[in-house]
Each structure stands twice: as C-alpha cells, then as structure tokens.
Amino acid sequence: MNETPFDPKVAEIVLRSIDQDELADLASRLVRIPTVNPPGDVREAAELCARFLDRAGFAIELDAAEPTKPNLIARYGSGVPPVLLWNSHLDVVPIGEESAWTVPPFAGLVRDGKLYGRGSCDIKGGVAAQLAAAAAIARSGIDLRGTLVVTEVADEEVGGQLGAKRIAERDDLRPDYVLVAEPTANRLCIGERGGVGIRVTVFGRTAHGALPWEGVNAIEGMARVITALQRELWPRLAARRHPYFAPASATISLIQGGVKTNVVPDRCSIYIDRRLIPGEQPEDAVAEVREVAQRALEGIPGLRVVVEAAPEWPGRPAILQSEDSPLVRTMTAVNAYLGLDTTLTGFSMGTDGRFFAARGYPTLIYGPGDPRLAHQPDEWVSVDELVDCARAYALAAVALLT
Asked: Which of 113, 89, 94, 90 is nearest to 105 (CA)?
C-alpha cells in the first residue's frame, strides 16, 4: 500500500488520546493479578478490563464456559460491518523456580523503562495496549463506520478451547479483520507455525532386575529410538525452511518409563513437540517419526514401538495469509507511518489466531515484547513498545473503520 490508508489529521487526534502513564499503570495492574494457568482463574483481570472499557463507552459482555474463566467481549461503533476484532489473553504460565527471579514475579515493577513480571511480555502488556488504543478511539470522538470488538480471553496457555475458540465460533461476531496480540516486537506476523504432539511408546518384557537377560528393556529400546531420531530426522527437519518462519523442529519434552527399581522396564514413552512450517501436515509428521522408530528397533526380539498423534494435541497445519491482503497492507502502512519495522514475518509459537484463521477470518499477529522473553524468569516488556503497540492498534481502527 503506497498511500496512507487514513486521514493523518484524524490519526493524530486519536494518537494524542493515548496516555503513556495510564497505559503503563494499566499493564502493571494486570501483571499484579496472578492468572496462572492452571488453574487459570482470570475473573479479577477480566473485570479490571471490563471496568476500563465500560468507562470508555464500550458495551460489555462477559462470556464464560466455566465460572473462573470469563472472556471479555467489548463492542464500540456502529454495530454493523466491517468488524475489526482485537484479541489477546489474560492467563499466564507458572513462574517456575522463584529463586531464578531477581524481581518479584507479580509485583508489576516498572524500572528503567521496562515492566517486569510474569505475563508482562506474554501478553498482559499487549492486553493493556489494546485497551489503551480502544479507549483512545472512543475518547477522540471520531465516528466509526464499522464496529470495533475487543476480546480478552481465558485459557490460551492450555489450548484456548474455552477462550478464543469459543469466541471465534460465535455467529454474532464474524470479524472482517482480526489482530491478535502476542509478543512479536511490534513486527507484522502474517502466520504461525503449526504443530502436532507425537507420542512414541516402546514395549518390552519385565523380568527381575538381577536377571536382565530374562526380560526386554523398553528404556534401552527407547534410547535406540531417540538416537535414531537425532541422527536421521532432526537434521532433515532443520533443513526445511520457509522465508517467514523458523525451520521445522521437534523437541522431546516428556519421558515416562519403568515399573520399579529392581524390575526390567516393559514400557517407555516419550512425547515429541513437533512444529510444522507451511507445506507440512500433522499426519505426515507422525508417519516420519514412526518410520524412523520402527527401523531403529528392527531385528531386536521382544521390542515393538507404537507411534501416534497425542490425543491432547492431534495437530494443525501452519497458517499463512496473503502478503497482499487488505489487513496486511493496512498494517504495513501503519508501521511505516509510525516508523516501525515493515518487514513481514511469521510467528514461531502457537497463538489464538489459529481459531480465527481456521474459520477464514483474515488474521495478523502483532504485539509488544520479545518472544524469547516469554515464559522466562524476569520476563519484561519495554514501556516504549507498549506505547508503539497501542498507537498501531489505534491506527488500524482508524484505517479500517473510518
């Protein structure tokens, strides 16, 4: 898009309505509310967001599949299409070992221009930026020819079934454009990698630990499988590349096995977190692992292996939208106007964006923070990035709804 898709005079009116101090305070207050998932109780955070947008003039709805996991749906504008939907999530992951933190995980500390705490980067800073942008639209007094919908949801960190999936399936929303806040350093992510969970189980035969030759050791069999995967499959995945994404990858993230300290183990299982780039399919990823695992145990009497998609994560392909879509062109122009990076890229982690994309809604992932800081001790986000993000979201609304 060569021309700026909004009236600069209107844009500046909206941008002046974004209050940096209010934004930083709002983000800090959200971080101070522990919304660790599990258990994922986001009631207090959802109510804080609802009160903020209610004061700004939004129509508020709290929709919950479970009492402790409400999803905020806030509407503003004409009530008719086009509909621009902003989405982010209120739940956060556990803090891990607290001794690894040098700041209190839920203090919401702002120091040297950075907001610290669990969820600051992933993604309560982005939530606060969306709220500040929404309030700026309302305060500016501009007329919207369409409808702005702000959704701050529960449940993203454990799959999103009670959060964004529930929102995306509502027939009364049907967005024309979707912006999902995740830590992208305010870069334009036009897709995300897919993934599938793969469970590999090796079966052997028990025996007394003092007589190992009477049994067949499943753990030792699994060691052969893991070695084969590292030698044969992992390099193959690393060579698969896409211009917008990190390479295809696989991580052995769980292992279980054994019966008792003095028993030859007859069973060992691993869980593989397999991430997919465009062109890869979940069922093919499972078949690749199966082929390598079966070959690794060929000729070893008493051992067999079962490879299957994990029921809790049966898989989904990567999502990617056209570089020339109206949403991508608009957000490229927005970042150009703000002096931010206009390079198109993809997101390596999973997001709630997949639920909207699966229903055919144009979806772009955009938010403040370095994704490498997510889920880490001393997680932080720059206040300047929060402001830039709020400005970008506000301009997106000006461009698409005025």
From this structure: 94
Q: Report how far residue 348's alpha carbon sits from residue 337's, in angstroms, rounded to the nearest whole number.
A: 26
pLDDT tens column, 289-327: 999 999 999 999 999 999 999 998 999 999 999 999 999
Each residue's pLDDT tens digit, 82-102: 999 999 999 999 999 999 999
The torsion defined by the Cα of 75, 78, 79 and 80, in degrees rounded to 10, comes to: -130
Given the structure tokens 């991580």, which residue do they identify?
Answer: 251
Residues shown for the chain? 402
What are the CA-CA distances from residue 103 to residues 98, 110, 123 (Å)? 9, 11, 18
Tell me the H-state helices in 234-296.
234-238, 282-296
Reading phi first (left if > 0) and then psi (alpha if -120 to 50, else beta), residue 357 is in alpha
Question: Is residue 220 among the annotated active site residues?
Answer: no
248 burial via Cβ count (<10 Å: 0-12, 13-18, 19+):
buried
| Spatial separation of the C-alpha atoms in residues 78 and 76, rounded to whole Å | 7
CB 92 within 8 A of CB 124: yes
Residues 16-25: tens digit of each pLDDT? 999 999 999 9
Query: Among the residues of 32-98, which ranges form H helices?
Result: 43-56
pTM of the model: 0.92
DSSP state of 274: E
Q: What is the DSSP letter of 323?
A: T
Is 156 one of the catalytic residues?
yes
Percentage of the chain beyond pLDDT 90 is 98
Per DSSP, the three-state class of 163 is coil
Strand, coil or helix: 374: coil
CA pair distance 177, 167, nearest whole angstrom: 14
Cα–Cα distance for residue pair 128/25, rounded to 1 Å: 9
Environment class of 241 (CB within 10 Å of its CB; exposed 0-12, middle 13-18, buried 19+): exposed
Catalytic pick from 91, 152, 157, 266?
A: 91
Judge contact between 395 and 143, C-beta under 8 A: no
Q: 3-class SS at 324?
A: coil
Report the pLDDT value the prediction gives residue 4, as an integer from 0 to 100: 87
Catalytic residue among 63, 122, 152, 156: 156
- Is residue 398 within 8 A of residue 331, CB to CB? The reply is no
265 residue type, one letter? P
